[in-house]
Design goal:
Layout: E1 2-5, H1 20-35, E2 39-42, H2 49-63, E3 69-73, H3 76-82, E4 86-89, H4 96-100, E5 108-113, H5 116-125, E6 130-133, H6 150-160, E7 165-168, H7 176-181, E8 186-189, H8 207-218
Parallel strand pairs: 1-2, 1-8, 2-3, 3-4, 4-5, 5-6, 6-7, 7-8
Helix pairs in contact: 1-2, 1-8, 2-3
């Protein structure tokens, strides 16, 4: 399971458009879908509900006919209104079981967790399809000194949780093999999937090549998958 987490402010803008970052993000999502990423988590906290819903609806149209599914960070109402495939809940969000009672069958629910005890509790409560555990390694998305969990915590969580666990935070192609050995079902990332020429670090490989390398690591019979 491979998940792109969006941040349009980190992309090279598409000039001459009303929201240059949004247009760049949609281009990124199209590339991600063509490369075969499983999930795109739209995380654009500065957008009001109406603008976010319009952007999500366009993203859903972009991935139509591919394996890629669109999740909206936190806003289940926006996800439903825009026809997205699911929602990704923050650690402080509404209980996943309450969300599950409000959404149609097949609607995906992920949740962020930040430690072993929290991950086990959320898993036992039920209602989620997968967990995203982090921050595993130091990350450009977090301030210097932000606490990290490391591979030992990741391994402890994956051993005990019944749903797939994705690792997030500072994941690279160099660290991904160790993440896979720790039992993660995949990774969620911003920088790893940034386009060449973006404001983040340029990729040495195409996104399709990155996805192919990650598939070798994570797509095994031992790894869990989404329903």
């Amino acid at each position: 399971m491979l998940c792109l987490v969006t941040d349009r402010r980190r992309l090279a803008p598409v000039r001459g458009t009303s929201d240059p970052g949004a247009e760049a993000m949609l281009d990124q999502i199209a590339e991600a879908a063509a490369a075969g990423l499983d999930l795109v988590q739209i995380r654009e906290p500065d957008l009001e509900a109406g603008a976010l819903a319009a952007l999500v609806a366009r993203a859903v149209a972009v991935v139509r006919g591919t394996r890629t599914r669109i999740l909206v960070n936190e806003r289940a109402d926006v996800a439903l209104a825009a026809g997205a495939h699911g929602v990704h809940l923050r650690a402080a969000s509404m209980d996943a079981r309450r969300v599950r009672a409000l959404v149609p069958p097949g609607f995906l629910i992920g949740r962020s967790v930040h430690g072993a005890a929290e991950a086990m509790r959320v898993d036992e409560e039920g209602g989620v399809d997968f967990l995203v555990l982090g921050t595993i390694f130091p990350s450009a998305s977090k301030p210097a000194g932000h606490p990290t969990l490391g591979l030992s915590t990741l391994a402890a969580v994956t051993r005990r949780c019944t749903v797939p666990v994705l690792a997030i935070g500072g994941i690279t192609l160099v660290s991904a093999p160790a993440v896979a050995r720790a039992g993660a079902a995949g990774v969620a990332a911003i920088g790893l999937f940034q386009p060449v020429g973006s404001r983040g670090e340029d990729r040495a490989k195409s996104l399709a090549e990155i996805v192919q390398d990650l598939r070798v690591l994570f797509d095994t019979p031992a790894q869990s998958s989404l329903p």
